[in-house]
Every structure is written in structure tokens, then in C-alpha cells.
Amino acid sequence: MYNLTSKAKIHEFKHDKRVWSISFSPDSKYIAAGGEDNKVTVYDLTSKAIIHEFKHDNEVRSIAFSSDSKYLAAGDDNK
Fold first, then answer.
1. How far apart are CA 45 and CA 55, in angstroms?
2. pLDDT recorded at residue 78
3. pLDDT, tens digit, for every residue of 34-72?
4. Which residues are CB-contacts of 16 (< 8 A; sequence separation ≥ 6)?
5. What is residue 3's three-state secondary structure?
6. How far apart are CA 23 and CA 68, in angstroms?
7. Distance between CA 31 and CA 9 in Å, rounded?
């Protein structure tokens, strides 16, 4: 994550495998990431801590928060 004004790196969220999708919650409290590790990882943006991981049977390809930040949708590589 980068500060666009200063161009400085703020934080790097680590993943074991390639990430295909990320989404910021509309209330700016969370970021969610998903990819080749078959899970959606949700981070608290203040603490940078993982607050939850959702397991999938396949690679996660898309993530989106609802407009009120109460729900998170994820699409995987289910064939």
C-alpha cells in the first residue's frame, strides 16, 4: 500500500501465493485480498492485522464489499 502524495510505501501485506483481487471497504476500515491460496483474507487497515480468512475450494478471482461495508462477496475459479 502506498501514499500517493509522498509516493512512500505504507505497508506490505504478505501472501504465500499470487493475489488476483483486492478491495477496500467503503468505510475505509478494511482491505480484503484473494488469490491462488484459495482464500479471502480480510485485514484491519488501522492495525494491519488479519481479522478473518474465508476458505474457498478454488482460486479467488474477484472480491467486492457492499456499499455499507457489512458484506463481502467473492468469486472463485469454480468450474
1. 21
2. 79
3. 999 999 999 999 999 999 999 999 999 999 999 999 999
4. 37
5. coil
6. 14
7. 16
Q: Which residue has the higher pLDDT, 19 or 15?
A: 19
Burial class (CB in 10 A: 0-12, 13-18, 19+), 18: exposed
* Distant-in-sequence, close-in-space partners of 47: CB < 8 Å, separation ≥ 6: none
Which pTM does this prediction carry? Answer: 0.87
Which residue from 41, 4, 36 is spatially nearest to 17, judged by alpha carbons?
A: 36
Distance between CA atoms of residues 6 and 9, nearest Å:
9
Distances (CA, A) of 18 to 13, 26, 29, 44, 69: 12, 24, 23, 20, 25
SS3 category, 28: coil
Determine contact, residues 50/41, Cβ cutoff 8 Å. yes
pLDDT tens for each residue of 26-36? 999 999 999 99
